[in-house]
Amino acid sequence: MTEAEALENKQQQSTSSNWDVPPESAVEDAFDTTYKEKEGPKPPRIIVWRNVISMSLLHAGAVYGLFVIPSASRLTLLWTALCFFISALGVTAGAHRLWSHRSYKATLPLRIFLGVANSMAFQNDIFEWARDHRVHHKYSETDADPHNAVRGFFFAHIGWLLVRKHPDVIEKGRKLELTDLLADKVVMFQRKYYKLSVLLMCFFVPSFVPWYLWGESLWVAYFVPTLLRYTLVLNAAWLVNSAAHMWGNRPYDTNINPRENKFVTFSAIGEGFHNYHHTFPYDYAASEFGSKLNFTTCFIDFMCFLGLAKDRKRVSHEMVQARVQRTGDGSHRSG
């Protein structure tokens, strides 16, 4: 074992020991990428026409919402932006960095806020989102990956939601240890009342607030801060699965597909440092550069300042440099 490998293993062990889950849990197991894809005939893709129709109507409504923007008041546009950031945080700071990776700890009030924000995002409940994401990390770019980027941009972006899951995704997902999620009362409460919470937070509240508080028309309130905002958040999250797995450099590990993608970093409020994230998935910042160009990391840092979060996991500079030298593509630029 080289000195760089020894340093990396030591850092990973010290970080893992702080996780508030059993050592054999899905959080740690999800990053063991020893899985080899089975050879043989591929099962046929089964189209879920209900999803095809609903997604088509949603995007048609979002396009119409673009033409409605000139009719919206400034307050409505500000409200739309606020709803975008709240719902995005429900995915990035909540379902992703907190519940999927356990990269920091959150108090009950913050967990409740992130649970509500996640319902506003409407991207499956926290339990299902985190389970699928752990499967994605463990079996990235194989048939067991829910949004396998090897199957093309469209599939990784939205196509995976329009067809039945590959049997490998279901099989491997059932084998993950998910007791940490099952033991979280916020996760289980949201899962139990998910449909109601989505109707309330994703559709009713974004439309009702501008209509009731400053007299915006319900038509504008429905198409701009509701449908358009929801569609933009969906596509921002999907870009992490598609664009950030296809285009960009790989300064940390050339042996994996995920890339560093600045456009995705901007649109997905900090989730585009994807080569780094897949190399060091337990780092709460999901980036070497902390809060730089990373709204989600800024939010988590602010929550720690307020005493609502703690125990942020971080990768040492020495470990990053060791990995860059060992497996990077030579494009790394510190700072």
From TrEMBL:
<keyword id="KW-0408">Iron</keyword>
<feature type="transmembrane region" description="Helical">
    <location>
        <begin position="48"/>
        <end position="69"/>
    </location>
</feature>
<protein>
    <recommendedName>
        <fullName>stearoyl-CoA 9-desaturase</fullName>
        <ecNumber>1.14.19.1</ecNumber>
    </recommendedName>
</protein>
<keyword id="KW-0560">Oxidoreductase</keyword>
<dbReference type="InterPro" id="IPR005804">
    <property type="entry name" value="FA_desaturase_dom"/>
</dbReference>
<keyword id="KW-0479">Metal-binding</keyword>
<keyword id="KW-0472">Membrane</keyword>
<comment type="similarity">
    <text>Belongs to the fatty acid desaturase type 1 family.</text>
</comment>
<feature type="transmembrane region" description="Helical">
    <location>
        <begin position="193"/>
        <end position="213"/>
    </location>
</feature>
<feature type="region of interest" description="Disordered">
    <location>
        <begin position="1"/>
        <end position="25"/>
    </location>
</feature>
<dbReference type="GO" id="GO:0004768">
    <property type="term" value="F:stearoyl-CoA 9-desaturase activity"/>
</dbReference>
<dbReference type="InterPro" id="IPR001522">
    <property type="entry name" value="FADS-1_CS"/>
</dbReference>
<keyword id="KW-0256">Endoplasmic reticulum</keyword>
<dbReference type="GO" id="GO:1903966">
    <property type="term" value="P:monounsaturated fatty acid biosynthetic process"/>
</dbReference>
<keyword id="KW-0276">Fatty acid metabolism</keyword>
<dbReference type="GO" id="GO:0070542">
    <property type="term" value="P:response to fatty acid"/>
</dbReference>
<dbReference type="GO" id="GO:0005506">
    <property type="term" value="F:iron ion binding"/>
</dbReference>
<keyword id="KW-0275">Fatty acid biosynthesis</keyword>
<keyword id="KW-0443">Lipid metabolism</keyword>
<keyword id="KW-1133">Transmembrane helix</keyword>
<dbReference type="Pfam" id="PF00487">
    <property type="entry name" value="FA_desaturase"/>
</dbReference>
<feature type="compositionally biased region" description="Polar residues">
    <location>
        <begin position="9"/>
        <end position="19"/>
    </location>
</feature>
<dbReference type="InterPro" id="IPR015876">
    <property type="entry name" value="Acyl-CoA_DS"/>
</dbReference>
<dbReference type="GO" id="GO:0032896">
    <property type="term" value="F:palmitoyl-CoA 9-desaturase activity"/>
</dbReference>
<feature type="domain" description="Fatty acid desaturase">
    <location>
        <begin position="79"/>
        <end position="282"/>
    </location>
</feature>
<dbReference type="GO" id="GO:0005789">
    <property type="term" value="C:endoplasmic reticulum membrane"/>
</dbReference>
<dbReference type="GO" id="GO:0006636">
    <property type="term" value="P:unsaturated fatty acid biosynthetic process"/>
</dbReference>
<feature type="transmembrane region" description="Helical">
    <location>
        <begin position="219"/>
        <end position="240"/>
    </location>
</feature>
<keyword id="KW-0812">Transmembrane</keyword>
<keyword id="KW-0444">Lipid biosynthesis</keyword>
<feature type="transmembrane region" description="Helical">
    <location>
        <begin position="75"/>
        <end position="95"/>
    </location>
</feature>
